[in-house]
Amino acid sequence: MANSMEMTTDVGRWPPASPHMSRQPSRVAPSLAPSRKKSWFQRCCGCCSSAHSEEDVEEWRSTAPGVRDRVTDRDPDRSDTEPTVNINDRMLVVTCVDLLKDRRGQNRRAHHTHEYEYDDLIVRRGKPFEICLTFSRPFKVRDDKVILQLHIGNAPQVSKDTLVIVPTVNEFDEGRWGAQVKEVNGKTMTMWVNTSAKAIIGKYQLTVKTESPGGTFVMQRDPKNDIYILFNPWCRLDDVFMDNEAWKYEYIMNETGRLYYGTEQQIGERSWNYGQFDRGVLDACLYILDRGGMPYTGRCDPIAVCRVVSAMVNSLDDNGVVAGNWSGDYNDGVSPTAWVGSVDILLRYHHTGNPVSYGQCWVFSGVTTTVLRCLGIPSRSITNFASAHDTDASLTLDVYFDENMNLLEDMNTDSVWNYHVWNDCWMTRPDLPTGFDGWQAVDSTPQETSSGLFRCGPSPLPAIKNGLVYLKYDTPFCFAEVNSDKVYWQRQAGGNFKKVCVEEKAVGHRISTKAVGSNAREDITHLYKHPEGSEAERQAVRTAAQYGSKPSKHGPNDDDSQDVQVTIEAQDGCMMGSDISMQVTVRNSSGSQCSISLVLRFSVMYYTGVCRDAFKEDVKELVLAAGEAKSVVTHLKYSEYRNQLVDQGAMMLTVSGQVKETGQTLAKQHSFRLRTPDLTIRVLGEPVVGNQITAEITFTNPLQVTLCNTAIHVEGPGLQRPKVVRVGDIGPQKSITILEHFTPRRPGPRQFIASLESDKLNQVHGVTEVIVRDA
């Protein structure tokens, strides 16, 4: 991991929100050297010093008055309730700690954690929870004292808030640590425990200490008494507080969502199983923070947590969760389009410690949503259509042609992705001036580095909207994605480049997310940018351009003559396997006749905007009278493109040309995708918790070729653990039906999600709603 103390001069890119930690927190207790003292290497070497000596971690066992026995924490999972000294009748011995952690009980429901498939107590910070203690004898108010201690990490310290000695109080101070006796009944005491609204999030170890006339007793750590503390959007003092109840249900509690893809003219959607409450996912999310080397002291800050999550969800730099792959070759892993949820990915990573293969932007976003919701940070996946990737911080998207209007691929490092999926997360921004709380953009897809690591955000949406790219984090890159101008350059005879066309509305279209409380698509473009062409939108571009790497390059064309305009219209809903028609319209707005030579080139493209060489070219000669418009139609047969396609069936039509009379250069690009069929899913039987039912999945191959090595991935939160069903080959235009049996684990509205992958067809998926009754 790069040292966070290294500064950068990138505008809007700042060091991490939390200090660098020289050693990575360990998930298990370190082995202890026989020696009581550290060697020179342990004292001075960054890696060796991560092994603690016996002097680093201490616990105090119960003793008689005046006698102390120091021991080391050799086994963090040890249940050690036996004291090392004799117990006398006057000592107040803790015989039982009941955290009232039943998933259907008051604690879990009050803290909105009852859906987590864990038997542990899981609470949200800033809100009290109830515990019950049982003693060896009746509790005496005048003589006895109970002290609760919570600690996290391997070397807990009060000064770093990793060791909390909970004070006993008569009344709670809102948002602060405190313990309050609710009731004493003989040997039993019921207490309310309030956590700080700024507490470190993670898994705490609980110890109970008593002081009485018989001496001091400390009940040693029992893993069954560990407590998970999470961020709390229901607490007004928490930095992630969200006032809208419907929003909290959607952005914290909803386990499934919609991810949008395709093009702005042909928006596709797929369901995604976030699965943030599935067994093992919470531990996997905390493991990500450990692997990211995040100091425990930084884990109270949602800004810092988002920075680490953004870096760790991708595998570059730090062997994070998902390995990206845009090559089209996924033989040694899983195709990105085959995943239907985050659960399998996170559990694989936690189990192996190795990046999971493979992912692309929607996979990174889906996993990020899972991690943030699981930890208690409101989050959503969003899709930006025609999303710019600005590689040189110029805040423009530059396209270069040679003298004959052929693309100069070696210079075209910027690109427009058909779509790009990232995340919004909700929090206050105390590190910024007022007005920038609320939704923040976070992107885990590895595109550009921020403070030395591949990560992006959190960047406040109001800053992106208004071009305030000097506000952290990574606002220049986020702004360029949604509101940069597309500039076409042509090489001249002397080698210089002339600006021949500027598209001011080329990127940042139909920014989409799943609507609250429904499966409809919600357009949130207005949160990211002002209306296209408005003075406010142009002012935002001018403001951002001042801080770009090439501010002098912004402005109108070098040649102001724009009398001829080109538009492209695509046939709606072109299915994979069908022929395609495209219409190009040229309009002459001048007062005189003009002659135009057009070149139309088809090329296949990755959804990231990277095109292969053109596989079909068509030349059209037009003569237009003053004020006249003419259209030409070009056709593309299935036989011409079927052996050319790459992932997701995307193609690009590039139209270039020149007006002979004026020399005006014409340039226009249009991307489109071919639609794929859906899986049809039907549930057979009555959905009841604990009763096996069946999902019937049907698919028809639309192509005139055989689909080989076909597999169907299925899963659903509370319904079905991730599973792969091998189908084999599916003949041309043949149909298959499979039956998948599953047993619902949790009641309520659920979704059963499936996707299909094969050698020639992907991005095929389906979903069905399942209402599960309690047993």
TrEMBL record:
It is found in: Membrane. InterPro entries: Ig-like_fold, Ig_E-set, Papain-like_cys_pep_sf, Transglutaminase, Transglutaminase-like, Transglutaminase-like_sf, Transglutaminase_animal, Transglutaminase_AS. GO terms for cellular component: membrane. Coiled coil: none annotated. Residues 67-81, 530-540 have a biased composition (Basic and acidic residues). Residues 1-34, 59-84, 530-562 are annotated as: Disordered. Signal peptide: none annotated. Pfam families: Transglut_C, Transglut_core, Transglut_N. It catalyses: L-glutaminyl-[protein] + L-lysyl-[protein] = [protein]-L-lysyl-N(6)-5-L-glutamyl-[protein] + NH4(+). Its EC number is 2.3.2.13. Keywords: Acyltransferase, Calcium, Keratinization, Lipoprotein, Membrane, Metal-binding, Palmitate, Phosphoprotein, Transferase. The keyword Transferase applies. Its main location: membrane. The keyword Metal-binding applies. Its cofactor is Ca(2+). It comes from the Eukaryota. Residues 353-446 form the Transglutaminase-like domain. Interacts with PLAAT4. Belongs to the transglutaminase superfamily. Transglutaminase family. This is Protein-glutamine gamma-glutamyltransferase K. It comes from Microcaecilia unicolor.
